[in-house]
Amino acid sequence: MTSPADDARDGDGPVPLLEPADGVPPVIETAESLAAGAAALAAGSGPVAVDAERASGYRYGQRAYLIQMQRRGSGILLIDPIACPDLTPIIAAVSGLEWVLHAASQDIPCLAEVGLRPERIFDTELAGRLLGYPRVGLGSMVEVVLGLSLEKGHSAVDWSVRPLPEPWLRYAALDVEVLVDLRDALEAQLRADGKLEWAHQEFSAIVANPLPGPRVDPWRRVSGLHRVRRARQLAVVRSLWETRDRMAATRDIAPGRILPDSAIVEAALAMPTSVEQLAAMPVFGGRSTRRAAGTWFAAIEAARALPDDQLPPAHLPSTGPPPPRSWAERDPAAAARLAALRAALGAVAEANKLPTENLLAPDYVRRIAWSPPENPTLEVITAALEGYGARPWQIALTAGVIVTGLEDAAKAAAEPAAEPDAS
C-alpha cells in the first residue's frame, strides 16, 4: 500500500491532499472510544505524529480543544480533550515513542496541560530551518518535500465550538496524515547534509526545556505601550490589563475580545475623570465595552490613587545589554564588535545554509559583543556559550569565529586613526 507522499512523487506538480486515506475518523469523545484509540496507537509502528488545535483569539489561555495523533498502522485519532479529560490510556500508548510535531514549542505547552509530555521529538519545522528551507510552514514543507498541497483554511477558527464541523475535522486530520512521511524525508536530508546530530541536539533541548517560565509584568506586552511614557499612565495600563485579564479568565474569553489593547492605551493617555468621559471615547464605543464602563473607570481610579512609590518603572531592570540601536552612541567599540561578529557569523550561517538565528541566538552574540571577556580565548568563549545554553554543534561552528572576530575588532580599535590628506 503506497502513501499519499509516494503517489505524489510520481507526478509533475503538487498533488492536492483533499481527504485522509482512510477518511475522516469520528471524534473520540468517550472513555470507550479513547481506550480503542489507545489500543490502535499501541499496535501501530514507528513514531507518532502529534498536533493540537487551540482557540487562540476566542478563548482564554492556550488550551487544546482537539488533539490529532497517527502512527503507521494505527489510523488517525481525533481526540476531544474536553470530553475526555483523562488521557491516561493515550499517555500509556505513546510512552517512550518519538513524537513528530511541526513547530513543537507551540504545541507542547497545551499538550502538557492535559498530561501529554514527549520523551523524544522530531520537529519538522526546526528540521526545515536547519536545512535552509526559506519557508517552513507545514503547508510549504509538505509541498516542497513531499509534492503534496494541503488546504490551510481553518487554522484560525474557534476550535472550542461543538460539534466541530466536518471540514474542520478533515483539515485537522490532514495535518498528521503525512507528518511521519515528512519526518522521514527530512531525516534523510539532514543525514545527507551532515546535520542530523545538530537536529538531535536541538530536539533534545526542546524536550529538556519544554515550557516557558512565567513572564514578568505580562501587561507590558500591550500593543502600543511605547506611546505611554508617564509612570501614572503606565499604572493605568497595568490596572486595566489586570482587570481585563481577571474578567477574561472568569468568562473564558480571549482578553482582546473583552477590551482591545488600543482602548487600554487610549484610556491611559487620556486619563478620563468620569465614567461619562471614558464612555465617550471612540475606542470604548462598543456595546459590551460601554456596559462595563464603570468597571474600567474603577480600574483607572485605582491606578490614579496609588502612591508614587507603587507606580511601575518605565522599564524593567535588565541584566542584558541595551538595544543595539543605542550602541553606536553609548559604546562605539561595542557597536564595532557587534558588527564584526554579525558579519562573521552571517558568513558561517550562509556557508552552512541555515538562518543566522539558528546558528546562534542573537542574544548570545549581543551579550558577548557588549561585555566581552578580558581574555577571549577559545576555552573562555566556549564556556560562555555553554553558560548561555548554546548547543555543542553551535559552539563548534561559532566559538572560534567569535574569538577571531573579537581579536580583529580589538586590533582595529587600537590602530591610530588615519591622518587627513593634507593635499
UniProtKB/TrEMBL annotation:
<dbReference type="InterPro" id="IPR002121">
    <property type="entry name" value="HRDC_dom"/>
</dbReference>
<dbReference type="InterPro" id="IPR002562">
    <property type="entry name" value="3'-5'_exonuclease_dom"/>
</dbReference>
<dbReference type="InterPro" id="IPR044876">
    <property type="entry name" value="HRDC_dom_sf"/>
</dbReference>
<feature type="region of interest" description="Disordered">
    <location>
        <begin position="309"/>
        <end position="329"/>
    </location>
</feature>
<dbReference type="InterPro" id="IPR010997">
    <property type="entry name" value="HRDC-like_sf"/>
</dbReference>
<feature type="compositionally biased region" description="Basic and acidic residues">
    <location>
        <begin position="1"/>
        <end position="12"/>
    </location>
</feature>
<dbReference type="InterPro" id="IPR041605">
    <property type="entry name" value="Exo_C"/>
</dbReference>
<dbReference type="InterPro" id="IPR012337">
    <property type="entry name" value="RNaseH-like_sf"/>
</dbReference>
<feature type="domain" description="HRDC">
    <location>
        <begin position="230"/>
        <end position="310"/>
    </location>
</feature>
<protein>
    <submittedName>
        <fullName>Ribonuclease D</fullName>
    </submittedName>
</protein>
<feature type="region of interest" description="Disordered">
    <location>
        <begin position="1"/>
        <end position="22"/>
    </location>
</feature>
<dbReference type="Pfam" id="PF18305">
    <property type="entry name" value="DNA_pol_A_exoN"/>
</dbReference>
<dbReference type="InterPro" id="IPR051086">
    <property type="entry name" value="RNase_D-like"/>
</dbReference>
<dbReference type="InterPro" id="IPR036397">
    <property type="entry name" value="RNaseH_sf"/>
</dbReference>
<dbReference type="Pfam" id="PF00570">
    <property type="entry name" value="HRDC"/>
</dbReference>
<dbReference type="Pfam" id="PF01612">
    <property type="entry name" value="DNA_pol_A_exo1"/>
</dbReference>
